[in-house]
Amino acid sequence: MNNLSIPSWGFWLMGIGFGLFVAMLVHTIRRNRGMKRSFYAWPYTLWMVVFTVLPLVLIAYYAFTDKAGQFTLENFANFWDSNRGMKTQLIAQGFDPEALGMGARGTVNVGTLIYSLWMAFLCTGISLLLGYPAALIMADREFKLGATIVVLFIIPMWMNFLLRTIAWMSLLEDNGLINTLLQSLGFAKLKLMYNSQAVLLGMVYNYLPFMVFPIYNSLNRQDRRLSEAAMDLGANKWTTFWRVIFPISMPGIVSGITMVFMPSVTTFFIPRVLGGGNTEMFGDLIERTFLTADDWNVGSALSLIMMVLILFSLGLLRKVDPEGEGGSLI
Amino acid sequence: MKTLKRAYLALILLFLYVPIAVLILQSFNAGISRAKWEGFSFRWYVQLIQSPNIMQALYVTVTIAILASLISTILGTMAAIGIHAMSKKPQSMMLTLSNIPMTMPDIVTGISLMLLFIFTKMDRGYFTMLLAHITFNTPYVVLSVLPKLKEMNKHSYEAALDLGATPGYALRKVILPAVRPGIITGAMLAFTLSLDDFTISYFTTSPLVQNLSTLIYSEARKGIKPTMNALSALMFVSLLILLLLINRRTAESS
Question: Which class in CATH covers the domain with range B54-223?
């Protein structure tokens, strides 16, 4: 329990924060007119600079330097060729990597990135296909239980995400519940776990609610009179949907895609539990590079590449939804 | 068509709830096997209370969730009021700043904070985890309070000032009541996010101070014992009861 106590510098930090707060209060009371309201944002600005901007600067610093702190692009070259570190070592020891048959480019990192993007793409697509109809049914005016069902989508998230993923393991295992059930019905056992499909299932399971909420919200906000008008003007149900309801729900779809795609590219843990040997995803690769290989420089370069990719895809999505309306989850 | 629609929703919900049902069932299983039912028992619930590891992790998880959501609610509400009063340019700058941690993948947030803590020679543990949780919670509070401020009638604050209220008094009596729903949503969101966080906690704490998620992670490879299931079943049911109580109260008051 010793480690639970707050270290001395923590008290210093809190002391300074509290001092600033008191100074602000005194300042406010002294001048009866009070401080400008925009001053209230100062503690937050300070906090964000220290705990968000500064850490990002550190990542960029490590990504562009070597172990001695010199500027280098080597870490990005290491991303492109995962054998590069080993080859440099061999050359330093006087061996020729080509002669040893190790001259080829190591494709592990790039391969993992492409695999992660592909898996995230599949996960987003499946979630959209499953989630859109569900949201549409829930937002139907004749369906009274919509709001209740939204809560039912939230409740599973209260169960620890790791445990929920592990629970799938008990269902999918060779001797798991699904296979036991299949056997008792006289069917052959299926190999359900330790492959990409199982990882995909775990991902869809975890991210599906994030697709349903924004779409449901945007459908629910729609002015019903628009679709009624379309029907009055002679459009059938199908045309009304494609020409009226669907286009207006676009911001919700964009928001849903963002909220599912971004976390799924960096999925971490799920592949380790449900996946087999070659289902590592980019999140696991970053973690492994930092903590197992203990290589902060290459790890930072990988994180930076990830960030740039995500910002790029966000930029693309902004083009579809320029007002960023879909960003409103709540 | 109607039955078809309902059946579809039921199927999706089944997909979401089957693993949870499995977890809860396993917590009452007398045996340790994940697939075989060996009779009903409270064995794992008894073991739970006797397990110091899990109890400490529970303490860390709950206290961090409470402290982090409290602090980030105060910080975020103040920030939202400040940002709302800003002119266009600094306002959009602050919104961009708020958006950074929300668009950053958890793993990058966690690792960058880890680098910061190592760089400043802070020992990772309870306090650094708390700092990290406040950091990822606060933007969500800001974003749930801001829309309420925008919906508010701009002139009521000015009217209060004209009628002789000091800015502080007007803030307490006019602005805060108007944005209260936003503050409550933000606080609840922060609490939930903090309670369920794994990735960021994993990078910002030491193996000596674990919350439930990192404890589960470290035990995942050895095989999770049903005691963990028992604990999450308990937490799940208590949150559910809390939700029902809140629902009933709001239903009564409206």
Answer: mainly alpha
